[in-house]
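Section 5.1 Outputs to date
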Amino acid sequence: MAQQAEHPGYIDDKDKVKNRLRRISGQVGGLERMVEEERYCIDILTQISAAQAALDKVALVLLSEHTRHCVLGAETPEDREEMTEEMMGAVGRLLHSR
């Protein structure tokens, strides 16, 4: 079984990832306010789409860093294969959640 890296691959961009997630949290709060204010459905759906796109961008950053740090940085070919399979499982879950 492959060992997890000592630090996550996104460690250098941790503050950027956290800032993106805070903005997404604000977007979700805005969605709740829009529903409370009984705003037009299409406007709410547009904002949902924007929040989903923002989450997708965070996911891409994490996948990219995981690939560089964990998959390519794996100590053995067996570990690299296991990390690749794990990553592809995560990609599959991201795609099928749509």
